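Thought: the user wants the 3D structure for the chain below. I'll pass the sequence to the structure tool as-is, report back what it returns, then summarize two notable features.
Action: structure_tool
Action Input:
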Amino acid sequence: MENYIAIHNLKDSIASCEALGLSKCFKAYSQFCNGEYILEIGFNPNSGYTYIALDNGITICSMLGNDVEYLIVSFMDGEESFFQSYEQAINQ
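Observation:
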């Protein structure tokens, strides 16, 4: 069986802002997180974020093609914290 990563909630054709956002997420991954295990890649239609969720608890995300943010969700209360850099998120 081959290993692969499915992209969730994206159709056969995606909007340009979603494609741009996903490309920014992959660029950030390659620059700062290369080698981190990827849990999931996708698009959240409720929030407008494309994302790459990492095993270390950080999600790289971009809303509608805007600059990348780094999201951490508290397992205790579900509170979301956004950071402007991977370094800030990893130090949290």
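Final Answer: Structure generated. Helices lie at 16-33, 86-90. The first helix runs from residue 16 to 33.
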